[in-house]
Amino acid sequence: GESVGLHLPTLSVQEGDNSIINCAYSNSASDYFIWYKQESGKGPQFIIDIRSNMDKRQGQRVTVLLNKTVKHLSLQIAATQPGDSAVYFCAERRDAGNMLTFGGGTRLMVKP
Amino acid sequence: ETGVTQSPTHLIKTRGQQVTLRCSSQSGHNTVSWYQQALGQGPQFIFQYYREEENGRGNFPPRFSGLQFPNYSSELNVNALELDDSALYLCASSSGGRGETQYFGPGTRLLVL
């Protein structure tokens, strides 16, 4: 398949380890944040979201942390599996807006 | 699978031509957003349609236009194609017109020669 993200930051982890993918956002007025996973040749797949009135939200094997003080968002993946290999994007929605603004993406590579 | 479908999957056009891309939203969703994703970059917002009206636009020229139909499916039209229009075009469906929890289709890969 085609390659998504030829020059992206890359995080390489061993299968079974935990992964942490970080994202800095710029707009303090953003009120909603979302993480997507994009595999080669596919559209972005929703993983988890969080509103600005929360600091942490957990899903199945994933946790999103939001630090509004330093405008930082992170995605934690527990017990990383080979199927988690993909490019991960964070996106923000600015308060009262209707568009998502995406970050540049991080490539996660899982070594068996 | 998100239930969002796009057609065609791939398309090759020449500079100056016009193209129409299509998107069917997920059942129950009344909002469609279109994004352009250049190779190696995150998606960039083109515009959004909510209940058949344009509901926000990103930094794209007027030759990018769209439509939403009563069944909430949508079209993206690009006139006077330029080489830099080569990209993956993604549509995302959601409900409520506020850009929340957008579910993406597989995209249309456009190559302009």
Describe this structure in words.
- The complex is a heterodimer of chains A (112) and B (113).
- In chain A, 0% of the residues lie in helices and 54% in strands.
- Chain A has no helices and 10 strands.
- In chain A, strands 1, 3, 4, 8, 9 and 10 form a 6-stranded mixed sheet that branches. Chain A has a 4-stranded antiparallel sheet with strand order 2-7-6-5, with no helix packed on it.
- Chain A is globular and about 45 Å long.
- With 113 residues, chain B is mainly beta.
- Helices cover 0% and strands 50% of the residues of chain B.
- Chain B has strands at 5-7, 10-13, 19-24, 31-37, 44-50, 53-57, 64-68, 74-78, 87-94, 103-104, 108-112.
- The interface between A and B is medium-sized, with 28 and 29 residues.
Please sum up the structure shown.
The complex is a heterodimer of chains A (112) and B (113). Chain A has 112 residues and is an all-beta fold. Chain A has strands at residues 10-14, 19-24, 30-38, 45-51, 56-58, 62-67, 72-77, 86-94, 100-102, 106-111.
